[in-house]
Amino acid sequence: MPVKRKIPCSEGVFFITFTCYQWLPLIEMTNGYDLVYKWFDYLKEQDHYIIGYQIMPNHVHAVIAFSNSGKDINTIIGNGKRYMAYGIVERLEKSKRYEVLINLQNGVNNSDRKRRKKHEVWEDSFDWKDCRSRKMIWQKLDYMHNNACSGKWQLVENPVDYPHSSAKFYLTGEQGIYSVTNYMELEDIDLTRGYNYQKK
């Protein structure tokens, strides 16, 4: 799933996925859902919009409308992953999950080790899709909202019942644990030439 392609622009609506190292359920293991929400809070403070999300035990899906903040989107996401990694490692240490910590230490490559990186919490890169139409935004929301019900997961029978998701909002109109911005409430979105986000 991780890709090395750099997002070639500084603004836009993107479907983002990043995954825990070796697909380990580190988010569930550390109850780290709040770390993702805190990162979302930071993004909102920087004038970006959280359109939708699904936080799974070992990976995160999000549709984010990035405004032009002068920062590269890859850097924004990389900084977020680093912040969450520190929180996850701290909780693993507090709960004395030493076997897991050793595994994460062994995952650090030599070049990162020279830069004093101690743990590999996430897979190196992340997957992204440029959402250039409202139809595509909805397709990605629908895909991630059904994640907890499909495949090996079967965490809930109905997407609405999965707490760490924006499914409840999009299917019932009621905000869930974390408030998101409906993409239909953003006007002046040019999905092909740039963005000028203003809430209605």
Question: How do the strands line up in the largest sheet?
Answer: 2-3-1-4
Oligomeric state of the chains in view = single chain
The largest sheet, given as strand count, sense and whether it forms a barrel, is: 4 strands, antiparallel
CATH topology value: Alpha-Beta Plaits
| Termini Cα gap | 35 Å
Number of helices: 7
Arithmetic mean of pLDDT: 90
What structural category arises from helix and sheet content?
A: alpha+beta
Name the CATH superfamily classification: Transposase IS200-like
What is the N-to-C succession of helices and strands? EHHEEHHHEHHEE
Describe the protein in words.
The radius of gyration is 17 Å and the shape is globular. A hairpin with a 3-residue loop joins β2 and β3 (59-66). Helices cover 36% and strands 19% of the residues. The protein has 200 residues and is of the alpha+beta class. The protein has one domain: Transposase IS200-like (Alpha-Beta Plaits, 2-Layer Sandwich), CATH 3.30.70.1290. It has helices at residues 26-29, 33-45, 73-94, 98-106, 110-114, 134-145, 167-172, and strands at residues 12-19, 49-55, 59-66, 127-130, 186-190, 194-199. Strands 2-3-1-4 form a four-stranded antiparallel sheet, sandwiched between helices.
What's the gist of this structure?
By secondary structure, the protein is an alpha+beta fold. It contains seven helices and six strands, in the order βααββαααβααββ. The chain has one domain (12-199): Transposase IS200-like (Alpha-Beta Plaits, 2-Layer Sandwich).
